[in-house]
Structure formats: C-alpha cells, structure tokens
Amino acid sequence: MSDPLAPVIRNLHEEGRLRAWSLLMTVFGDSVQHRGGRIATARLRVLLERVGVSSGTLRTALSRLGQDGWVSSEREGRSSSYTLNGAALEAVEGASQTIYAAPRATPVRDWVMRLGGETGLQIAPGVFLAPADAPMPPGVRAAVTGPLTEVAPDLAESVLGPDNLGARAALRADLAALQGLELTPLESAAARTLLIHRWRRLVLRHPELPPGLPGEGGAPDLRTEVACLYRALTPGAEAWLSSDADGLDPMPAPDAAAARRFG
Description:
The protein is an alpha+beta fold. The chain has helices spanning 6-13, 20-32, 41-50, 55-67, 86-99, 155-178, 185-205, 222-242; strands at 38-40, 71-76, 79-84, 111-116, 121-124, 127-131, 140-146. A 4-stranded antiparallel beta sheet has the order 5-6-4-7. Helix 6 packs parallel to helix 8. The protein is elongated, with a radius of gyration of 20 Å. The mean pLDDT is 91.
C-alpha cells in the first residue's frame, strides 16, 4: 500500500539537509505547548519517524537543543521527556501569533502606502503597502490611504524575490498533495506537522503578500487554505496525541487556546 504522505515527506527531504532541530520546534509549538508543554521522547520518536526522521537524527537534534539551552529533559525510570526552556518558549509563543493568525474575513478594499514603519509589503526603499485596516506601526513618516487603481502584474515577483516565491510554490504543492486524504490519527498528526512546518518557515522568514493584489496576490489566499486544511487534520491529530497507541502514554488534554488557532 502506498504512503499517502509520501509526496510531502519527499518534498521535505529533497530541499537539502533537513534541520531536524527546526522541525522539533514546529512540533513543540504545534503539538506540545497546548498539552502541558511536555512530550515523551518515545512519542517524539514515533511522530518524527513517520515523517522520515531517524531516531539517531532525533537524538542529535535534542542534544543540540539541550546544549543551546532550548530544551530540558527529565527522566522517570526508563522513560524520558522534554520541555522548552525560557528563551525557546518565548520564541515559540511569539511566533504562534504570526503562524496562527486568522485569515481575513473580508476582501481588502482600501490600502495604505506608508513611508517608514518597516511592516507590510516593501514596494520601494522605505515604502510599504498594507491593508488600510492593519495596525499603524511606529516610525511612519507619511501615509496615503485609498483604493488601488493600478498595480503592475509583476509586482509580486519584483518585490518578493525568488526565495519567497519558491517557498509559496512549495507550500502550494504540499497543500495540493494533502487534500482529500483518508488518514489514520498518526498520519493526521504527521500531516499537520508537515503542513505547519512549511507554513511556519514561510511566514516567519518572508512577508505575506496582502490578498487582493494581482499576480501572486490574485491566487487564493494561502493563509485561508492553510487554515482550512489545518482544521481538517486537527481532529485526527489531536486524537493521536490523546491516544495510548503503540504503548505511549496519552498527553494531557488540550487547553482552550488551541481551538482559537486561525480564528
């Protein structure tokens, strides 16, 4: 029987050397922090092996994170578990606000073009474009608000650059590969990890293109697509985190904040 996750796993491993420590941070942020903040090494091993990461690679990544002060381990009998430390916890919690922000509920009708402010889509040196209802950042020297009457079709390509556009294309490939699959709870947890890892690397490294622009912006809003697929995968993923399958101890029940992800 073929592996339903094979295309997405292959995409992950074909991008060069996998940074397993980064994948672990995705797992902590998405599957651990809302369930008491601690995860057994055995459960980590099962999840990461499902996405093609060996036990040896996992041990090396955990060792590196421990040496850097990002995680702490605790042993009870023959079992061990891991939690995030202060700096890593702050980083994960801060990133979560960007990763799990809700998609826009209505189309963008008015836009603000700002001189200064350092947020939004940079369309020229020091000049940023953002939806008019976005919070006004500090440092704005001038701003003009109104509808966009004309935008060059190649705006996205010219201002986002090949790395951002490539990351967006890779996300679209994963979204397409994960649609409509019938998955086991473990496969749902693995699929959700792969999805949010791809999405996390995009939105934390590159500016999001405001929906409603031509070119890349004329495509379906990626945040909306990610949110829809995330919601579809979550019941199965959470069932696996609560299960005692494979001899694993169930994780604590999820907190209320998890239900508010993506709005």
